[in-house]
Amino acid sequence: MLAGPKWNSRYQAYIDQYKDIAIEEMLRYGIPASITLAQGLLESGAGQSELARKGNNHFGIKCHGWDGRKVYHDDDENSECFRAYNNARESFEDHSKFLKSGSRYRSLFSLSHTDYKGWARGLKAAGYATNPVYAQSLIDIIEVYELHQYDYAKSYDKFIDKHSGKTDERKYNGVTLHPIGIFNNNYYLKVRKGDTFKSIGDEVGISYRKLAKYNERDKKDALQEGEIIYLKKKRSSAPKQFRNRPHVVKAGDSMYSIAQQYGIRLKSLYKKNHLAPDYQIRVGDKLRVY
Known about the structure:
The protein is mostly helical. 38% of the residues lie in helices and 9% in strands. It is built from eleven helices and nine strands. The strands form four sheets. A three-stranded antiparallel beta sheet has the order 5-6-7. A hairpin with a 2-residue loop joins strand 3 (171-172) and strand 4. Helix 1 crosses helix 2, helix 5 (116-125) packs antiparallel against helix 6 (134-144) and helix 8 packs across helix 9 (208-214). The mean pLDDT is 91.
């Protein structure tokens, strides 16, 4: 028996970035969020495939009468026509419409949106992919990354959903915008020379006072090039992959820099480690972050 997939950070980053879009699509169309995410991961190589990079096509959907932009890629035959999108969000939306409107997938919608195994097997039976282990591959991904938890969601994070599909090549006042990353269910960007909370706030459409508060800083603080600024309130714990991986203090670390590194609130870091606010960390200290 072949071993199933092992957890890796690239897949997890993809899930963090697109899970809220997948949940929204589930609430609109009834397709399990777990299935959408697993298909996106499998079909696009977690967003790294040529189709995803050149055409924002995360689901390998071919042209089939498509009137929009197209890209050509070798698949079952040479230079086949695939749909291309302006961003990932459009690809997720079109995937939902493709399944919902296609007669071959109609029977899937009689299944519960929590029956990810039934959906996986039904997609294979309906001919979504030719790979004989396609259904099991989807199921394995869902179970390794616990994607089925999203099938029970009643709402989604609209802020993350709004920004997830955007490219990093947008401009604001003629200047290329900061690339936005996703970590620990939050958005962040890295400070450039000359940035202030005010300039960043104007760019991302968030009050600079809120930005400073989210990052536990004063709104007038000078920012250092390369430091991380979060765009939402930080969480109380690091991602669960750090459950048994304490942070080992290095030279130059501070409690604040460690909190920013893991996307957690400073007071939570002190609380997790039962430390007084005046505690001075030392190189080699081990700090819980989850």
